[in-house]
């Protein structure tokens, strides 16, 4: 297992990894009082706490799945595997907070008590243990328990791969301008941990104190251009309500990823650009958890994109955005950005840029699938490639590769990584 930096908090991880919740699956929680879970669930919860220590803004990759998870999502997943009972990520988060508050109250009561601390320390063993004295099961035993279950087989039983490919083909063929030709996709179970290049020090042991230190964030920037923000959204004409579909903020994760892994998900142009470009700092991967909880009234809604770049140099930008299916370009949109000078630098702002009809219809068709696992498997074959160049010289300034999953949260989130030559096999 390796870790990748994700969006703030425990944000949505791999939404396709969790089965959709139902009333029946949550019925086992109805009798629980606040902060009190049944013995088997609490045991699994404590095991998971030992396996997955607090990781702050970071996510964890399950090596045999190649998917990113937040800590609370992994704890919920572990409880499901061990007990067969469903606890959502939010319920896990709430339970952790309840226990933390209880511990704080106990500590405060202890400080206010009249019993001398010496007597407390001299209490005879064998009594009821306080929460702080509970002995967690060994991590190795918990890991062994979870590895006995094959996550890959359980997921394939939920959404068979053949069925997913058929759904993908039906969805993609129903859209206009789609040049459909299936090419081998990135295997869902690929071990991404071999493709991540950690920038941290060789010492992997981090003390609890150090884990609380706020790390300096890096901007999403090449040597000539910085991406400050990107937002795809839907705005209802009747209510003026704006719902973010995809949102990128100006934070680059500290890990690098091998670009060769993603070649087959994009047109050959991506490989050609990377191999020919002298500047390797212009290539980025944006893993987006999209919010598709938007109005179905397509006719009375505006689908649009806002984006904001800046540079110390003055030039005009040309932005080519390609929607791709199975590694083939489906449709391309080209836009121009003109520089706005301010305080010695230049800004490039494009607001309310309409999405093409193709993308609007794709989102509408995707929503009809209803099941998040099915949607995410369809999205395995859908990517977006954005190429930013100097419109006068065609100099490459930034390449952004988008991959998507459906978010289980009401807000979208995104992690952006630099793509590098990791020495992977990029042959056909």
Descriptive key words:
about 425 residues, 2 domains, eight-stranded mixed β-sheet, six-stranded antiparallel β-sheet, 11 helices, globular, disordered N terminus, TEA/ATTS_sf, transcription, nucleus, developmental protein
Task: Give an overview of the whole structure.
It is found in: Nucleus. It is a single chain. The chain is of the alpha+beta class and 428 residues long. Helices cover 27% and strands 28% of the residues. It is built from eleven helices and 17 strands. It has helices at 39-51, 71-83, 89-112, 117-121, 139-147, 151-158, 161-173, 208-211, 268-276, 357-367, 372-379, and strands at residues 2-4, 59-62, 67-69, 196-197, 220-221, 226-236, 242-249, 252-258, 283-290, 301-311, 317-325, 328-337, 340-342, 345-354, 382-390, 396-406, 413-420. It starts with a strand and ends in an 8-residue tail after the last strand.
The fraction of residues assigned to DSSP E strands is 25-35%
**Number of domain units:** 2
The helix content, as a percent range, equals 25-40%
Radius of gyration: 24 Å
As laid out across the biggest beta sheet, the strand order is 4-8-17-9-16-15-11-12
* Tally of DSSP β-strands: 17
What distance separates the N and C termini? 28 Å
């Amino acid at each position: 297992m390796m870790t990748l930096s994700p969006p703030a908090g425990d944000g949505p991880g791999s939404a396709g990894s969790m089965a959709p919740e139902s009333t029946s699956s949550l019925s086992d929680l109805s009798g629980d009082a606040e902060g009190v879970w049944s013995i088997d669930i609490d045991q699994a919860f404590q095991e998971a706490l030992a396996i997955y220590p607090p990781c702050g803004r970071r996510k964890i990759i399950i090596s045999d799945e190649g998917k990113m998870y937040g800590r609370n999502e992994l704890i919920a997943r572990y409880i499901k595997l061990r007990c067969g009972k469903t606890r959502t990520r939010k319920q896990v988060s709430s339970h952790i907070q309840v226990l933390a508050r209880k511990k704080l109250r106990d500590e405060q009561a202890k400080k206010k008590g009249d019993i001398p601390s010496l007597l407390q320390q001299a209490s005879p063993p064998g009594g009821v243990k306080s929460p702080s004295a509970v002995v967690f099961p060994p991590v190795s035993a918990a890991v062994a328990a979870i590895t006995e279950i094959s996550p890959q087989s359980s997921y394939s039983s939920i959404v068979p791969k053949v069925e997913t490919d058929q759904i993908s083909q039906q969805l993609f063929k129903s859209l206009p301008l789609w040049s459909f030709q299936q090419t081998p996709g990135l295997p869902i179970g690929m071990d991404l941990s071999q493709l991540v290049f950690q920038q941290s020090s060789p010492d992997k042991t981090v003390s609890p104190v150090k884990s609380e230190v706020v790390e300096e964030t890096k901007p999403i920037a090449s040597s000539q251009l910085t991406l400050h923000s990107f937002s795809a959204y839907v705005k209802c004409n009747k209510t003026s309500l704006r719902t973010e579909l995809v949102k990128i903020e100006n934070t680059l994760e500290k890990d690098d990823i091998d670009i060769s892994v993603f070649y087959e998900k994009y047109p050959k142009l991506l490989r050609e650009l990377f191999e020919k470009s002298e500047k390797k700092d212009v290539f980025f991967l944006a893993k987006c958890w999209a919010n598709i909880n938007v109005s179905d009234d397509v006719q009375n809604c505006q689908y649009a994109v806002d984006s904001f770049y800046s540079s110390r140099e003055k030039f005009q930008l040309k932005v080519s955005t390609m929607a791709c299916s199975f590694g083939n370009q489906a449709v391309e949109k080209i836009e121009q950005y003109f520089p706005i000078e301010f305080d010695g630098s230049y800004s490039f702002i494009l607001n309310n840029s309409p999405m093409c009809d193709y993308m609007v219809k794709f989102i509408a068709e995707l929503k009809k699938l209803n099941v998040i696992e099915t949607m995410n498997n369809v999205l395995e074959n859908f990517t977006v490639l954005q190429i930013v160049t100097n419109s006068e010289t065609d100099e490459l300034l930034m390449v952004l590769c988008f991959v998507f999953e459906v978010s289980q949260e009401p807000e979208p989130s995104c992690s952006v990584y630099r793509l590098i030559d990791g020495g992977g096999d990029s042959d056909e």
